[in-house]
Amino acid sequence: MQSMAAACSSSSSSRAWAAARRSYPPPALPSSRHVALPPSPSSAPPSHGCRWPVAGAGAPALPHSIRGGLRPLPSALLAAGGARAGAATRTRTAAAAAASPPAADGGGKPEGADGIPQTLQVGAMILVWYLLNIYFNIYNKLVLKAVPFPYTITTFQFASGSFFITLMWLLNLHPRPRLSLKQYAKFLPLALIHMLGNVFTNVSLGKVAVSFTHTIKAMEPFFSVLLSVLFLGETPSVLVLGSLVPIAGGVVLASMTEVSFNWIGFWSAMASNLTNQSRNVLSKKLLTDKEDNLDDINLFSIMTVMSFLLSAPLMLSVEGIKFSPSYLQSAGVNVKELCVKAALAGTCFHFYQQVSYSLLARVSPVTHSVTNSLKRVVVIVSSVLFFGTPLSPINALGTGIALAGVFLYSQLKKAKPKSKAA
């Protein structure tokens, strides 16, 4: 009787289980890794002590996904962890591939192959820089001898540069920069220094010979060391300080025997040294500042346009409007010839400075200083030959000593980083 009662109880439990499953479909399970199957309302344990129905004990077989009351479900955390693991694996693989040396096959380029075209490009730019500088100094001196108005001529030169820059941007030959007012305010001191440096150079060229102006401008390394000590806290080596002695001595020796010596021309050239060195340091800093995202051409273009806007009021306040056809005719100047020379001087002025800034972005400041020293030699010799400037032996000796000191200074500055690296 007990076995029949147990069988009856088991049969009734099975029928109750099936009815419960038909009446109450299983709810949607939550998204977790494992969930427990909730008990059915109709399958409460009977009072006579029957156990929970399980598969193989009289109850219908449960699906494989929920056997044992547990169901493995996909987990978002597991998927994210797997994605991260895959990404880390791919990152390690890419890093290993980048660190491994390239295969030495026949298709690889030899090391330094790309440096040859770059060297040729820099050499061509230096040659163009020298030629434009020679023609600028010759035509500029001719214009200054005819009309001694350095502020007006400087403004005209900046106006010529602004014309070429505007044409370049309008024809989309170079992308126009998009800057904020804050960035323009940052470039304002640079434009002011650039404008004053060219004004001082033209004042000096109008008062003394071209060769003497460039002899005085050989003192630029002295101002470079002075600015580094005052504003950067750099202490020059004894050898670098020693190289300044022949520079200063050569300039003094050349000044004592200079036929066209003039104190205004002398101090204007010295002021030009100070402003140009300050401009070079600040320009290099702005070119390496990734926040501004400016290339060398746009930096020089913005600086030129802003210098023109700054030089115009200075010209009007110092010299007024004197570069007019009526004034030139009354002074006995050939207006057409003067305009051609002024236009050529302005064109050479703009492009030689733009090439100089492009070189400053491609080479180190020391290399730029070395090429600038050699440029002074070329300009001095060409101007002496063109204008027939009288040079005494002592004057030529002083100029040579000053330029030799500049070259020695450049070599010592160039060798300084190598000694630190060793």
TrEMBL record:
It comes from the Eukaryota. One of its GO terms (biological process) is monocarboxylic acid transport. Residues 120-410 form the Sugar phosphate transporter domain. The keyword Chloroplast applies. One of its GO terms (cellular component) is chloroplast membrane. It holds the Pfam family TPT. InterPro entries: EmrE-like, Sugar_P_trans_dom, Tpt_PEP_transl, TPT_transporter. It is a multi-pass membrane protein. Its main location: plastid. Signal peptide: none annotated. Residues 1-49, 92-112 are annotated as: Disordered. It is found in: Plastid, Chloroplast membrane. Residues 1-23, 92-104 have a biased composition (Low complexity). Keywords: Chloroplast, Membrane, Plastid, Transit peptide, Transmembrane, Transmembrane helix, Transport. GO terms for molecular function: carboxylic acid transmembrane transporter activity; organophosphate ester transmembrane transporter activity. This is Phosphoenolpyruvate/phosphate translocator 3, chloroplastic-like. It comes from Panicum miliaceum (Proso millet). The lineage of its organism: Eukaryota, Viridiplantae, Streptophyta, Embryophyta, Tracheophyta.
